[in-house]
Design a protein that fits this description.
The protein has 288 residues and is mainly alpha-helical. The protein has 2 domains: 1-70, no CATH class; 75-287, Rhomboid-like (Rhomboid-like fold, Up-down Bundle), CATH 1.20.1540. It contains 12 helices and 5 strands. Helix 6 (135-156) packs across helix 7 and helix 7 runs antiparallel to helix 11.
C-alpha cells in the first residue's frame, strides 16, 4: 500500500509544522534523518543512526526495523520478574496480605540492613531488590518493570540492559543505607526508578518529549508518592533514580558503534562496582 498524498522529501516544510506527514492529526517530536519529514511513533523506523520515515526506509538498504518490532524478547526483564516472583512465593504460602509485610523470614535473610551487610552479608545489596512486602508491592513494581523493560532492553541489548538494571539496583541500595540504614529495606523500586530515569534520557536523546509519552508524568507521580506515603524508602528511590540516570545517559550516549557500546557498557559496570564498594563502606560506617 502506497503512502497517502503527502509532500515529497524535497518539498520544503514549515519549521513549526510537527504534524506527522502520514497522519496529519498526530503531532511528532521527531523528523526523518534522511528527508526531515515529521514522523509519529507509529511511523518511526529504526535506522543505524536515528529514525527514518517508512518511505526512506524502503528506498534505503535492508535492515531497518519499525520501532514496534523492537519490543520483542525482553528476556532479561522476564528473568528478573521470575526471580522476584520466586522469592515472593513463600509469602503467598504464608498468606501474605495485599499490602502486608510478606514473609519476614525471607526478608530477614535477604533484605537490606546495614548491620547485616557490615557483618559480611554483602549479597543483601543485590538480593534486597528481589524481596517484596505484599501483593501490591510486588504487583506494581513488576508491572512497571515489564513496561520499562519492553522499552529499554530491545533498545540497549540484553547485556547493557542488565548492567543498567544492576547499577540502578546498587544505587538504590546505597541511597537506602545512607538515609535509613537500620531498616529491613526491600523491593525493586530503586532499580525501577533507575530505569525510568534512563528511559527519560533515552527518549530525549532521540528527540521525543517524555511528557508526550506519559513517562515523564509517571516519574513525577512516583516521586510525589515517594515523599507522601509513609514507609517508602526515599533513599532507595532517589539513589536508584540517580544511578539509573547516569548509567542510562552513558549507554545512550555511546551507541553509535560497537566500540562505543563496549566502552559505554564498561563504564556502567565500573559505576556499578563503585556503588557496590560504596554500599559496603556505608554499611560499615553506619554500624561503626
Amino acid at each position: 500500500m502506497s503512502d497517502p498524498a503527502v509532500p515529497g522529501p524535497d518539498t520544503p516544510l514549515d519549521a513549526e509544522d510537527w504534524r506527522c506527514y502520514r497522519h496529519p492529526d498526530r503531532e511528532s517530536g521527531v523528523r526523518c534523518q534522511r528527508c526531515s519529514r515529521p514522523i509519529c511513533p507509529d511511523c518511526m523506523v529504526q535506522a543505524p543512526v536515528g529514525f527514518q520515515c517508512p518511505s526512506c526506509a524502503r528506498s534505503g538498504p535492508p535492515g531497518p526495523r519499525p520501532l514496534r518490532t523492537l519490543r520483542r524478547g525482553p528476556y532479561v526483564t522476564w528473568a528478573i520478574i521470575a526471580a522476584c516472583v520466586a522469592v515472593f512465593l513463600p509469602s503467598l504460602a504464608a498468606g501474605a496480605a495485599l499490602a502486608g509485610r510478606g514473609d519476614l523470614d525471607v526478608a530477614g535473610e535477604l533484605a537490606l540492613n546495614a548491620p547485616a551487610v557490615a557483618d559480611g552479608e554483602w549479597w543483601r545489596l543485590f538480593t534486597s531488590g528481589f524481596v517484596h512486602y505484599g501483593l501490591l508491592h510486588i504487583g506494581f513494581n513488576m508491572f512497571v518493570l515489564l513496561q520499562l523493560g519492553m522499552l529499554l532492553e530491545p533498545a540497549l541489548g540484553r547485556v547493557r540492559f542488565a548492567a543498567l538494571y544492576a547499577t540502578a539496583l546498587l544505587g538504590g541500595a546505597c541511597g537506602a543505607l545512607l538515609l535509613d540504614p537500620g531498616a529491613l529495606t526491600a523491593g525493586a523500586s530503586g532499580a525501577v526508578f533507575g530505569l525510568m530515569g534512563a528511559a527519560v534520557l533515552g527518549l530525549r536523546r532521540r528527540g521525543i518529549d517524555p511528557l508526550r509519552t506519559g513517562l515523564g508524568g509517571l516519574l513525577a507521580i512516583n516521586l510525589l508518592l515517594t515523599f507522601v506515603i509513609p514507609g517508602i524508602s526515599v533513599g532507595g528511590h532517589l539513589g536508584g533514580l540517580a544511578a539509573g540516570a547516569v548509567a542510562g545517559g552513558t549507554l545512550f550516549a555511546t551507541e553509535d558503534t560497537a566500540r562505543d557500546r563496549a566502552l559505554g557498557a564498561g563504564a556502567v559496570v565500573a559505576l556499578g562496582a563503585a556503588l557496590f564498594l560504596t554500599g559496603l563502606w556505608l554499611a560499615a560506617r553506619q554500624v561503626g
